[in-house]
Amino acid sequence: MTIPTVDLRTWRTEPNATTAVDEALRTAGFLLVTGHGVAEELRAEIRAQARAFFRLPPTTKQRYAVRVGARGWLGPGAEANSYAEGTPSPPDLKESLSFAADEPTGDPAVDAEWFAPNTWPAETPGLRTPVETYLSLMRALSDQLLALLAAALGEPEDFFTRHTGHPTWGFNINWYPGRDTVGTPEPGQFRIGPHTDFGTVTVLDRQAGRGGLQVFTDADGWQDAPWDPAAFTINIGDLMARWTGGRWRSGRHRVLPPPAEAPAEELMSLVYFYECDPGTDVRGIDSHTYLRAQLDAIASD
Fold first, then answer.
1. pLDDT in tens, 269-290
2. What is the domain extent for residue 151?
3. Who has the most CB within 10 Å: 107, 211, 224, 287?
4. CB count in 10 Å sphere of residue 56
5. How many domains, in total, are found in the chain?
């Protein structure tokens, strides 16, 4: 399995960069990118603030509980991502703080479904500023990635971004507690079960761990994902795969259960899901009808 690293500052002058991207997205659906310009200190601050929230009593967190696709806290058992593949499994062993696009379009129906206000927990007032800073950077970075992907297809750089003037997006801060918190996993239970993402690109800031990310390819099966502390992990989702007519594949992945040999291991990932403008036609399907159906599918209750 080959997952290349692309420097976003220099890819236009690197003769083989777009070829490597095309090959990786045809097999694994994953890349690593450096040169993204997002400070490690910002990501550390978000984790520190989010950890303070996740450590609150369950009765306090319950005030912010929502269903999948809404803005708030997704508690233990809220998701089973393998359901999107039609595979029954126990619920995922994680908790999430979930945020999404919140700048209204002016269309009441669209805004009610896709651009509602975010919820900011009162118990962690220091969370909002770093998260909003990060989200602004993610929006710009995602458009940079779409320009790279367009070039890898041999298309003009605005091939995708002409459809991201007012896009939807989602952002999850995923907390993966250790066995000392969640107990022994059930058979077939993961921190996140096997699945593909639903949108165009996903930008993942992850931590290394024994119970970490794995990527699936037909050639090699499940393999540990490469990790570079200076890089973001990028994967494409179902909409992007469809947009390319199946040339590229959605990156199938999972997050391993908390390891028995490190029962106190906890990890936290910052996961930004980028999509496109509501109503975008992606080779004959309405992008957001599809997205809503997939979000509904992974709710475990």
1. 999 999 999 999 999 999 999 9
2. 5-297
3. 287
4. 16
5. 1
